[in-house]
Amino acid sequence: MSFAIASAPVSRRTALRAGGATALLAATDASWLQRLLGLGADGDGPAEVFKGDAPGEATWRRWAQRGWAREAAHYVKLGRNVQCKVCPNNCILAPGDRSHCRNKVNRDGTLYTLAYGNPCTFHVDPVEKKPLFHFHPGARTFSLATAGCVFRCLNCQNWEISQRRPEDTKDARGAELRLRAPLPATLTLDEMSRLSLFPEDLPGVAEALRCPSVSYTYSEPTAYYEYTLASCRAVRAAGRQNILVSCGSIEERPLRELLAFVDAAHIDLKGFDESTYRQLNSGRLAPILRTLKVCHELGVWFEIINLVVPGYTDRLDSIRRMCGWIVAELGPDRPLHFSRFHPQHKLEHLAPTPVDTLLRARDIARDAGLRHVYIGNVPELEGAEATFCPQCRRPVIERTGFAVTRNVLVGGRCPHCQTAVAGVW
Ligand code: SF4
Asked: Looking at the structure, do residues 64 and 160 belong to the same domain, yes or no?
């Protein structure tokens, strides 16, 4: 719903005098209200949303019948508008609008997610691919994602799903197909687009595929929060583990609720400057730092990845500040993975990160006191992804690509000097 008042130059005081915030929120264009009231997390206004882009009646009906549309968690009603409180984008949606992450819509004053039980992709991966190097090395993890993301990273490697609507990756027409054990030998593309995978079926699927854990990954689990949370509950209840692979941009309340069911996390720390975060990712640094501190406080095992993008996140002074912050706030045992950038998405014109830059970043991190520093995406660099004993410096886990080739840890301790190595073994 859009009104002429949306473009009128009205001051906040005048608008509030004219009828009160609640009445305005119920009756006017949400994007105008965003600017007018300056609502949003951390002093920022809410993110841009897709005006009038909610699915039409026929698609909505099919989506609802299939169980792919559910009322969202963590939102507030502002008259007929709604505001999502899952991530710091804090989208405000008028009826008929679609959220910044593309996964949520306001239908008649209620916020719904369209990304429930309808993953657009899933695979069995080694945990090393997340990457997690200090969490059950060599274990398999069932990994899934839906469409949508809360960020707009210029370098996104999964933009074909992260920058898509759920309806662009799934099709609720045709016969219903539900993935559950016993599993079919193969799936066609058509079957994949129609397929449901509901939280209650996940533990059986993971068991059939010999995966002790489920990973919420590839796009952004915050953008499919309701599905992630329900899945984590079901998987935990069945005695399996949950791995969160996230950009970390999430509000504190939903984060704490989710972490109660998470066993390990991989959090992207994409840089250490607010301006770079805005420019490269259309996100904010402060909420990510809060997420890292909450993970640490709650004792969830997590590792940090930092993609070194030439011209954006390769400034050594910034890397130095980041490493100092990690040591001071999260301790020296927190694994840090520097990752080499390769040209993709909107940064195809850039060259890959020079290996020398990555080596200098690793030196800075080690000088800052970090004990487990890795360099990813440079397979030719010997020992870059090996784990060394923090005391005697001998290799205790060696890897080639995503494969563990040697693991000599005994009960999580170095076999040479018996020093405990941080992690979940
Ligand atoms: S999770 Fe999606 S709908 Fe909610 S605030 Fe973030 S971007 Fe907006």
From this structure: no
Q: How do residues 235-255 score in pLDDT, each as one tens digit?
A: 999 999 999 999 999 999 999
CA 221 – CA 148 distance, rounded (Å):
9
Q: Are residues 107 and 210 in the same domain?
A: no
188 SS3 class: coil
315 and 331 share a domain? yes
Tokens standing for 359? 């080596």
Choice from 101, 163, 165, 258 to test ligand 1 binding pocket (greatest atom count within 8 A of CB): 101
Q: What percent of the chain has pLDDT over 70?
A: 90
Can you spell out the DSSP letters for 275-295?
HHIIIIISS-HHHHHHHHHHH
Q: Does residue 53 surpass a pLDDT of 50?
A: yes
Domain count, the chain: 2
Whether 87 lines ligand 1, by a CB cut-off of 6 Å, is yes
Closest residue by CA, ligand 1 atom 8: 91
Same domain, 128 and 231: yes
Q: Distance from the CA of 67 to the center of ligand 1, in angstroms?
A: 20
Q: CB under 8 Å to 361, separation ≥6 — which residues?
A: 306, 308, 314, 316, 319, 338
Kindly report the protein residue whose alpha carbon is nearest to atom 6 of ligand 1: 87
Residue 31: alpha-carbon gap to chain centroid: 25
Are 221 and 364 in a shared domain? Answer: yes
Task: Return the residue matching tokens 């490493």.
Answer: 323
The phi, psi pair for 181, rounded to 5°, reads: -70, 145
Please check whether residue 405 lies inside any domain of the structure. Answer: no
E strand or H helix at 366: helix 355-368
Q: Which domain holds residue 23?
A: 4-113
- Token pair 């016993």 is found at 182
Tokens of 3: 């009104």
- Any domain includes 149: yes
Tens-digit pLDDT profile for residues 390-415: 999 999 999 998 999 999 999 999 99
Rounded Cα gap, residues 264 and 270, in angstroms: 19
Q: Measured from the CB, is residue 84 less than 6 Å from ligand 1?
A: yes
The CATH number for 232's domain is 3.20.20.70
Distance 123 CA to ligand 1 centre (A): 26
**Is the minimum distance from the CB of 101 to ligand 1 under 6 angstroms?**
yes
Q: Which atom of ligand 1 is nearest to the CA of 223?
A: 1
The CA 150 to ligand 1 mean position distance, Å, reads 6
Indicate if ligand 1 lies below 6 Å from the C-beta of 223: yes
Q: CA 283, 167, 62, 109: dihedral to nearest 10 degrees?
A: 30
What's the predicted TM-score (pTM) here? 0.89
Based on the fold, state whether residues 354 and 334 are members of the same structural domain. Answer: yes
